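Sanity check

After download, print the first record. It should look like this:
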Amino acid sequence: MNTCEKILTTAAFLFQKNGYHATGLNEIIKESATPKGSLYYHFPNGKEELAAATIKLMGDTIQHHIEEELAKNSDPVQAIQEFILDIARKFNEKDPENCFSISLLALETVPISDSLRKTCIEVYDLWTDIYYQKLVSSGFSSERATELSLILQLMIEGAITISLIRNDTTMLIATAGKIPILLKDK
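Expected structure tokens:
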């Protein structure tokens, strides 16, 4: 892992664990075991630029995970259920590679930065498009897939957020159980 990747991975973990405001640049430098100059070399505009890069990194990681999970099964109901249940299985792993969502970071930073808000929108739109593509390729009309992909995004992100708050997977499992009802009509 190169220096920039170490910084980003560490920032992602600390932002998820402590929040944006409670994570200082010095803590990121210390935890990543990288020189202070490296952080400012890669992110000359400071913490906000680092947060945007972190959101993109987390977004890409989650995007690839969604794509991999949905590709495992041609049936969209089973594929989406298995994806959500996979999140539930990985829920208690505190590994920065297993981030589930950008929602907590988004909620904390959106009020203070239009740039970070736009970065979050881009990431959420990419994820929603993955659900859309899965539904369209499974025979759903474009109009229906547009509506359902947004609802899926809302359900999954909401279940992740509540699961994080409650520190249990009940909402994720309940959400997975409702997917057949949501997707019953093409």
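If your output differs, re-run the checksum step. Summary of this record's structure: The mean pLDDT is 92.
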